[in-house]
Amino acid sequence: MSDVIAFVGVVGVIVILPGPDMALVLQNGLARGRRAAVETALGINAGLVVWALAAALGIAALLHASAPALTLLKLAGAAYLVWLGLRALTHAWRETPAGPTERTPRRPWASPFRQGLLTNLLNPKIAVVFTTLIPQFVDPGEPAVAQTLLLAAIFICMGLVWLTSYALLVAKIGALLKRSAVRRVLNAVTGTVLTALGVRLAFERR
Predict the structure, then answer these.
(1) Chain centroid to CA 184: how far?
(2) 163 close to 27: Cβ distance less than 8 angstroms
(3) What's this model's pTM, rounded to 2 decimal places?
(4) Mean pLDDT score across all residues of the chain
(5) Residue 206: what pLDDT?
(6) What is the average per-residue pLDDT within 150-155?
(7) Where do the structural domains in the chain lie, given as residue ranges?
């Protein structure tokens, strides 16, 4: 694996590109605070760990090779993003001056960690990354599984550092935006973004 530096450079670009993960961290951080933002980031990276294991065991490659399975995953991911987006829009519409977190009971299925985990697991683009990008940097003369896990660990560590830092920044900005009217606008914007990402994913060609 002589191209680790090149791999880090490519992953760096992938990690910081805006997408569903960053939109969800933004949504939860602004609406529910620092803890929710960090939990969302941790859930997303937990999803990456699952994908890393799937790639090492060859499961991700089988999924990528199966058009029906990948399409099903894509549609499930799209539906979940649209649901999250519509939920954020509903909160923006119904939010009172007291804020949504003070009136809305915490539900296990709505936990930020689980939202981050499901958003990542239902993202078919992650399957593509782990089945097409990582193999390009695997040396045929060395154990493939060990190299795959090492490269995946680098990917996960970079993602964890970036998303956690981003989550803390979002939470700090959110703390400065206490006014209900501002939060309603931000909820509406992030909800629209999540819904749009879901619709785009649903109609995106493989």
Answers:
(1) 23
(2) no
(3) 0.75
(4) 79
(5) 54
(6) 91
(7) 20-203
Nearest to 82 by CA among 16, 163, 166, 24: 24
- The contacts of residue 121 (CB under 8 Å, 6+ apart) are 47, 50, 51
Q: What pLDDT is recorded for position 180?
A: 60
Alpha carbon 42 to its chain's center: 10
- The residues near 178 (Cβ < 8 Å, ≥ 6 apart) are none
- Our CA angle for 91, 185, 22, nearest 5°, is 80
pLDDT at residue 157 above 90? yes
Burial class (CB in 10 A: 0-12, 13-18, 19+), 95: buried
Which amino acid does the sequence have at 146?
A: A
Q: What is the 3-state secondary structure (H, E, C) of 47-77?
A: HHHHHHHHHHHCHHHHHHHCHHHHHHHHHHH
- Using alpha carbons, list the distances in angstroms from residue 109 to 2, 32, 37, 101, 118: 43, 15, 16, 15, 10
Distance between alpha carbon 179 and the CA centroid of its chain, in Å? 27
Could you report the per-residue pLDDT of 94-150, keeping only the tens digit for each? 654 434 443 444 555 468 999 999 989 988 888 888 888 888 888 887 788 888 889
- What is the distance between the alpha carbons of residues 74 and 63, in angstroms, rounded to a whole number? 11
On the CB side of 13, CA atoms within 13 Å amount to 7
Residue 8 token pair: 């880090």
